[in-house]
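Task: fold both queries, return tokens.
Query 1:
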Amino acid sequence: MSSTDAGGVVFDDVSKTFPGRAATTAALRGVSLEVRPGTIHGVIGYSGAGKSTLIRLVNGIEKPTSGRVVVDGVDVGSLRGAALREAQKTTGMIFQQFNLLETVRVRDNVAMPLRLDGVSKVEARKRADEVLDFVGLSAKADNHPGELSGGQKQRVGIARALARNPRILLADEATSALDPTTTVQIIDLLRSINREYGTTILVVTHEMDVIKDLADDVAVMAGGEVVERGSVLDTFLRPQAPVTRDFVSTVIPQSVPGRVVEHMGADGLWRLLLLDAEVTQPLVSTLITDIGVEVNMLHADMTEIQEHTVGQMIVKVTGAPDKIAAARRFLSERVVHLEEVAA
């Protein structure tokens, strides 16, 4: 199945510029990217990287200056009027600040996209009740948004985005306004939508924890360009671009404090990455008892990424040069990655 099948998105050499009084601003520069149907694809970058502009091209809110955005086999940028409005029904949008009408009850907020499509009030409310039940908010259908918590408001926003039963769901910083516990709940809900409905989800964020817990694939953006892309697991294990390493380090530290390096010396200071069964190996005890080196464990942790266990150790290994060389060979054969650690 190619990305032009139902729920697939292809960005083909897309650029987007915005004219200004003094100069033209290039928000996107030659972006080419595929979002596989039925997957959750993350786009991460700092403020101004172009990620929000990218996502707004999918439902035609913005038009590319050059290049094509192909959704379900259709060049969305070429659509106008009724054709564009019809294509937009296949995508749902979740916003950072919820964008709910405070004077309208929850049920009618959710039903609004259907009412705008000309669906009868009875049928629209029936569908609203269905999706409110799915997101766990049936009991709040008659409340106003002002009576809800931030997490509940975002669930209403998700229910509204689901009302049309879209093939593609766009999430623009959907967890940025939420506390950590509520963020986890929203991530779980989005994963349920993807799993139960097969909905393709494109999520933009500046939080690498969200990417780790939610996405299958990730594109890293900087300066309007995609600087790195791949599966989330590979990106965490082998980040290439400096900006990617910065984001990964917010979840898996890539270095140790300079004062520690200065005190202990950089020689034999190694960072080990272990995957799945590798984390259960008795590496340290073998290094000490069988190879004959001294090992100072400075840091160790584990995390789950795409249903894989990823472990990390930062160690200081000391001993005779031949023993250290033997220790490095031993570790290189038993861990997914070994590298010298810098401050």
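Query 1 returned. Query 2:
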Amino acid sequence: MSPDPAPGGVIHLHRPTLGEEEARAIAEALESGQLVQGPRVRAFEAALEGLLGVPHAAAVSSGTAALHLAALALDLGPGDEVVVPDYTFPATAAAFARVGASPVLADVDPDTANVTPATVEAVLSPRTRALVAVHQFGLPAPVEPLRALCDARGIAFVEDAACALGAEVAAPGGPRRCGTFGRLACFSFHPRKAITTAEGGLVTTADPALDARIRLLRNHGMTPGGPTGFVFVEAGLNYRLTEVQAAMGLVQLGRLGGILAARRRLSLGYRERLEALLPDLGLPADPEGAPHTYQTFLVRLPPGVDRAGVMADLREAGVESSVGAHCLHRQPAYSRPDPGDAPFPGASSLGDRGLALPLHPGLGDADLDRVVSALAGALGR
């Protein structure tokens, strides 16, 4: 397993949970001689289909590739608008901009960091073709009302579940996993996520036609046939996951339950300490019926606090931190001329005050004590 931070050393924001099993699986994949389009990728896809309860799961090379393929499979392009959260990682919007569609930014609830039906409805237009709802930091977005809103208007509902592998939402027939509500859903296996394939992603759907299109596009638009053995029926891409990555992913999937349990235990430990020592700090929402998987533990600093100064103090104390996500309306690629912050109060609040604290299964109680003590000291200064 990944080593614990050394006493007094740097407490990292995140470290993937890796061990000898991954190394052996990777070695076996290398020894097999088949490094792409082999049995390990299909086994990984099948395992994820079983975990999520979806009929189709296509493994791809990254979470961004998954989003790009979703945009292509839905035939989005110039003249189409796609609603995305203002507060997210820019890949959520970039994948749709790259097909010529226009990302339209929706504000988020500052307590959950997710879009709401009200913030989405405020930016819909006759050109809206899709909504991409991010399960931000592993907290499920309000999928049922968002999907109902989309269905009533003929809009494609897409889940960006990059942070939400294993997250569940209460439903009449029992809990359902994030990634099963949209026409398409996209996952990431970046090292910051609960499980990793170093880089990697996944597209899930219940629609066999969309799945077939995703699989065609991820492999050069190539299908068997013709005098050379293959016919290129569409201008595709190389977005394949390798056998080496899939071998690693299969081992990681076996760790998922323990990883999520550890993240939740550590998050509860943070809550107890922070509520006692820093009651003015905003803590992550954890609503009943949609429990958080805590890909990130994001706190909100009190208004007016110099976040950059707090992060510098934490760094001096050997504690890594980050700003969480980004306000897209402040980024040159997505901003309007002189946009200001007025249309995005929720996102702007998180963009100014959000602070991600270290969270990964390698941490222990002493590490939590040290992080909280360092944060209290930084805020005191």
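Both queries returned. Flag for query 2: Confidence is low (pLDDT under 50) at residues 1-6.
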